[in-house]
Amino acid sequence: MKGLAVRWIFLTLAILAAAYLLDGIEVAGFFSALFAAGVLGVLNVFFRPILILLTLPINILTLGLFTFVINAVLLMMASGVIRGFHVRGFWWAVLGSLVISLVNWLLNSLVSDEGRFDGTIDLRRRDDGGWE
């Protein structure tokens, strides 16, 4: 449960980063971004798998790049529901989904499934003197 809360905060920070970096995405404040992250998380859980399955041939032909279009549509759906969170158009949503995906991936790569920081690297010396 702790990991879920940490990932929700990370998605909120990713939305705030997208709003800071892109002129076409506006967020009224932290709580608007928090609610947008919650709605986006629910949309990703329930609708994203269905949309990916329905668009599987297009997704295969574009080598997975159509997934960004699906993410953009979900981002626009979330902006339609949350007051204080606005995406100006489809192409801003595509750019926003790229920024949000990148920032969210970077932040989530630092945390384990239990919500703990995984900043350590375990290195072992092999018999031939190299490291693994």
TrEMBL record:
KW RNA-binding (keyword) present: no
Keyword line: Membrane, Transmembrane, Transmembrane helix
Regions crossing the membrane: 29-47, 54-77, 89-107
Coiled coil: none
Domain of life: Bacteria
InterPro entries xref list: Phage_holin_4_2
Stored Pfam families: Phage_holin_4_2
Record bears the keyword Transmembrane: yes
Record protein name field: Phage holin family protein
